[in-house]
Design a protein that fits this description.
Blueprint (H helix, E strand, L loop, with lengths): L8 H36 L7 E9 L2 E9 L9 E7 L6 H8 L1 H8 L2 E5 L20 H19 L2 E11 L1 H12 L6 E5 L10 H8 L12 H7 L3 E6 L8 H14 L2 E2 L3 E3 L7 E8 L2 E9 L6 E2 L8 E2 L5 H13 L3
Parallel strand pairs: 3-4, 3-5, 5-6, 6-7, 7-11, 12-13
Antiparallel strand pairs: 1-2, 2-4, 8-10, 9-10, 10-11
Helix pairs in contact: 4-5
Length: about 325
Amino acid sequence: MAKRSRKPAWAKAFQRSFALVTRQALSNGARAAELTLKLGAEKRKAPAGKGDWIAGLAMGAAGVRRYRLYRPPDVRFGERLPLVVMLHGCGQDAKGFAQSTRMNRIAARERFLVLYPEQDRLANAQGCWNWFDTRSGRAYAEAELIMRAIDQVCLLYMADRARIAVAGLSAGASMAALLVTRHPGRFKAVMMHSGIPPGTAHSPLSAVGAMHGHRPARPLVATPGAMAASWPPLLVVHGGADRIVSASNGQAAARVWAGAAGARAADGRDVQRGKRYPMTVTDYKLSRGTVATHIEVAQLGHAWSGGAAGQPYSDQQGPDASRLLWTFAASQFQKC
């Protein structure tokens, strides 16, 4: 009869340890998978409020980008609504930006569509729009993807092509400005919140210098007559206490925009609404029209002014930038 072999004590101990580690790994993996599914479901869930939260895809030379569209309730068949395009900043996504800015709430009340294009983390690990990467052409390719998303919304959801505004925060603000310089006739208004003027950077390294205000803004390539006639007016909001994107960029953005049209700055005026941070407002005018408006909020950091409490890059104590944006855009839509 063959003798039964016995495993050494160390082998038995190793086998028990391996089995324990395996069970723990499987358990941790199951919990991680469950958490991933929950986070994915939460991300797909619509922000609070009435209206539709519609998913879409835009495809182009830069690949594919997701977008979300907010449509207010009770849109009538054949009704064409204005469109506001919102470009998020680094570390944000469409839903987070909608929650922070609370733009959907204004859209429900005022009846307009809101488009939230979303950067892919494979294109930028921090979720930033690559507004600065003009040397490689990636910035322009991403701008065209956003334009394709706009065209889809105009075609599929009856957005009014004659009443489109674009706004962004930080990298989104810089991409919004780049978008308008390439397609000025498509937009009636543009807002830059805590962004960098177009043409200030052309690579990741130069973008870092621009963020700290170490690179001069270049003049826009536009003749004064064409600029005043067909380019949309610019609204700039920037925090004086911004330690990520220097406040000098806000001043520079307004100046280059106004300079291209031949507009001059009026005297700045101090405004405070309730208990919100005070702001200094400077208009750049040409004849009777306003080409650019610069708003500096001295106590505001790198955050959406007047945004929702508890959201990243949001400061509820600032003037309501979402309301300022809509008021600015609506005044231009009324001219259509």
